[in-house]
Amino acid sequence: AKQAGRNGMRFFDQRMQDTLSARAQLENELRTAFDHQQFELYYQGQVDADGRATGAEALIRWIKPDGASISPAQFIPLAEETGLILLLGDWVLEQACRQLRDWQHDAATRELVLSINVSAKQFRQPDFCARVRSAIERYGIVPARLKLELTEGLLLDNIEDTIASMTALKALGIKFSLDDFGTGYSSLQYLKRLPLDQLKIDQSFVRDLASDPNDQAIVLTIIAMARSLRLDVIAEGVETQAQRQLLAELGCDAYQGYLYSRPQPLPAFQSWLAEASP
Ligand code: C2E
Ligand code: CA
Ligand code: CA
Ligand code: CA
């Protein structure tokens, strides 16, 4: 038994060692990727009730030199742990504002709203508001065209701080969407205190919407909540006409998902735009 225990321990150490070095390696790779500008923003269209494009969500991709595209699900968590998310987040903000500036020069794209994802660490930086203001001013963009997607977990953690930061950002004129809505512990009680503009129905409620009455009830409740708080509501992960039809019947009026557009590089997104907003 003693022997097995020692072997068990050695095995455990080895596994921990492997995990740690895999992590360290990924962390190194991420830094190198950042230095070599291997990150790219993809754009996923958002549409209104008539299927017309109203904007996009910017989703980051890591494009390796061999062309392979790595999903943020695989590196954002580590970037958050190591603090690299601050560099990445700044870069995303910068890219987004630059893109909005370009769109503002063209009558066909002038009104598009671009949403970016903001991580907790990034949002909690004492100078986050100043960074956003600086980017908006440097690119001369209309603040209302920039939307920040925040998650419930982020907002709930220290709500007084959250309200203060959001209020300062709101004063600049930017918009807020509550991402992954329904997966956290939202109550009307705290939601009504936040200067939000939009609730985004999490894709987990959309996936089985056509077959699951529970999901239908949840979506109906979310939309009722949004209405009573005078917030817009958008559904994400819309893949089928059946989902989109049900969402419409439940009162949703904005959609995002593969049914309309996958997240894609800028040129492909611009082609999609030309078709989706005739
Ligand atoms: P999210 O913000 O909830 O983004 C939605 C995810 O759903 C995206 O995954 C998107 O590609 C995917 N998606 C969109 N439409 C559909 C659909 O119809 N069906 C299905 N099954 N999936 C769909 P993605 O791009 O892999 O991003 C994963 C997560 O990584 C995001 O979840 C977000 O939390 C994070 N992320 C992405 N970009 C950034 C960024 O620039 N900064 C930060 N902090 N986080 C980011
Ligand atoms: Ca999002
Ligand atoms: Ca989401
Ligand atoms: Ca998510």
UniProtKB/TrEMBL annotation:
Domain EAL: 23-277
Coiled coil (residue ranges): none
Organism domain of life: Bacteria
Leader sequence residues: none
Protein name, entry field: EAL domain-containing protein
Biological source species: Rugamonas rivuli
Positions spanned in the full protein: 437 to 714 of 720
